[in-house]
Amino acid sequence: MDLAALRERVRALGGSGRSIALGALAFGILVVVPVLNVLPSVDSSLHVPDYLIPLLGKFLCYAILALALDLVWGFTGILSLGHGLFFALGGYAMGMHLMRTMSGEGVYRSDLPDFMVFLDWKKLPWYWLGFDSFPFALAMAILVPGALALSFGFFAFRSRLRGVYLSIVTQALTYAAMLLFFQNATGFGGNNGLTDFKRILGYSLRASSTKLGLYVATAVTLIGTYFLCRYVTSSKLGRVLTAIRDAELKIRFCGYQTTHYKLFAWTVSAILAGLAGALYVPQVGIINPSEMQPSSSIEIAIWVAVGGRGTLVGPILGAFLVNGGKSWLTSSFPSAWLYALGVLFVVVTLYLPQGLVGIGEALSARWRMRKSA
Amino acid sequence: MGRLSARILAATLLVAIVFVAAPGRAGPHGVLEQALVDLLSDSGDKAEEIAGKLADLADPNALPALEALCDERLRKGPDGTLYIEGQDRQTITYAVTGEKATPSADALGKVEMSNALRRAVLPVLAQLRLGSPDRQVRLAAAEELAKRGSNAVAPLLRNAHDHEKDAGVRKALALALAQLDLYSENRERRLQALGVLGELGGAEMESELVRLTSRGDDGRPLEADEQVRTAAAATLRAIEDRARVVGILRDVTHGISLASVLLFAALGLAVTFGLMGVINMAHGEMLMVGAYVTYSVEVFFDQRLPSFSHWYLAAAIPIAFAVTTLLGILLERLVIRHLYGRQLETLLATWGISLMLMQSVRLLYGAQNVAVSNPPWLSGGVELAHGWVLTYNRLAVVAFVVVVATAVWSVLRYTTLGIKVRAVAQNRAMAACLGVPTARLDAWVFGLGSGVAGLGGVALSQLGNVGPELGQTYIIDAFMVVVLGGVGKLAGTVSAAVGLGIINKLVEPFAGAVLGKIAILLLIIVFIQRRPEGLFASKGRVEA
Asked: Is the pTM of this model over 0.90?
């Protein structure tokens, strides 16, 4: 069987080159990494060491977050500098659940979380009620960011807050929330946040099997998010979103309620970010207000920009590359990382408006042209 | 153990002084020295009594020794003679006579200072200082006595009060006296004291007065004398009323001070963002650079031109302006020029620049905050009322921002450059057609905006510490000011800064700083609902 026939057969299966690559990527994330973690012996060169699993899981969470931002920025043209807030809210919901499941096991052996004992609180505040239950916490990880995004978006989009103005207001919102969460009196552990978690759904968080389980759950969520975003962006609604990005006035004059479309994308995006946060916390083991720093939110934008906004593969790629680079640089050349990040911001916006996916596409187009010529 | 041995030592020393060393220093000084030695050898339970004796002596010669004791500069020779080590840690003098002494510092033992001893000595010290010719010393002494005086000093205070000529010290003395008289045997004196407190007293007197007016656990009033009770209640009311008014005035002045800072951060932004529509996330870092330039200039003056070091600020202002202007022009030419019309990209790119600037400063100056000291002519302040102090550095910043804002406004209003800038802001294409060099103008305006931020950095360095994150603290608030004030109008920026500053400080006492910030943010979002174009809508270009 020659190559042309193989390609023909793949095309018959309904896939282009790109979806094959995607399938391979998904297969690699979902199957190959876990299998290589479990099967080969520890000293085999194919073995994925245990410490890498939570790190990769963290990157997967970032990839979900990047997809969420891409949905509003890359496709709808709203640059949010507040996705760190939604991410952190989801994370806090999960963190609160994890704190509740270990009541009585803290340093003070109290029913309350340690920091509340420390503050001399006698009773659980009302907003902590219900977090004993995992489904409730998961629902909150989705509903709280969603509700906040819905109400904020409603007022912001209604008053035609757009472009950089919206970006700045979202940044201010996140900043204000950070200050709020930094306070001990808010009841979320102040600047230490929530940490020292023991187990999730009865499984110890220290066990490598739990870590792998969380990794797989995150990978499944990422793939689900990808398909959701693909479904949304390729639907008619998605076309309207793209049209809003490119010429909001025109599309409004065509009779579309742009506010509603934007609100939809914005809320879905916030929910996805919250979900990413909820998956992030058990793998990283801590959630604190620094996740709401303006700089963390704006960093998400660079993941998306590096990969290529307005594409669905780009953000995933960008999240992995930038965070991988960050992990490497901050350990080997700590003072160089912020320079690298700064340069990345400038270079990508000046020279790579379409990101890495854009380069790839340009190269393949040139290759195809040369071939046909 | 240590205390016991100290006692034995002291006793031995006493004997030594009396029998061996006494011939050389008999006479009036002997009594004083005796009292001092007694004081030091006491284990703490009789310290007050002995201190009282010292106070009765009222010998100004005791002052240096007691001061040295409090500063832990008092030294004891092997023969028990007391010496004072000078501030410079070099010169040694006899504690009592003040004459120069020769023993080397190494041969002298330290005199231990216990808390009980310190408590006993401080009022005595204050009492002796009341006779000082220096106004500041007398004032501090009066305040010390108000806090820790005993009934025994009342006559002395009364005497000092009657002879005092300086109004400020007189007031402090009257307050101290009133606080002592409050518990006098004499009813007239108590009522009079309450009257004085009602006129001059501050919030620190409230707990005392509340005690006088409240009832004990058995339901009976704590104060037996009814007349005193009613007078105390009236005094309490007067003090509270005054505190409320002063509190509001103080909040307003703090608000104006905050407003001046916000305006400095927002003024340059109003030019670059408001007029040119270029969003610059590195604007805060221009403030930071300005502040660090000030720091460098200060260090340079301290090292190279120490005789002019008080005037480093005068040099820092133009240098900071020049550096940040240049930096702004560079930034515009190298990066922002390529991104016109793509605001979101400009936002990201300038954010990257701000990261690099911050990191550079961290590498150059360290990640820790540095302190820029106020020149002497900016330190201190004027106390307008009890608890309401206007510091000179804040006053200077307010004045400076007024000058800079007026200058920016005049440049935009009256110069050719300003006319061209406004033309470009209203209609870029048309202005270009009429021969305005828009590209060069952009660079100039961007430089101007950055330079103004640099001046803001000079101002900020006078108010607090300077750190790499300085700009980040203000940038969000500054953007809020520009958004609220409306794009393209300096008047809007000014009123938004003043409004936000004052509201911020007025809300803070009720809600706390954080909730205040959140409340203001919500307020801005609600406000934008009503007037999307800001306080002062520009009639010029508003991009669709």
From this structure: no
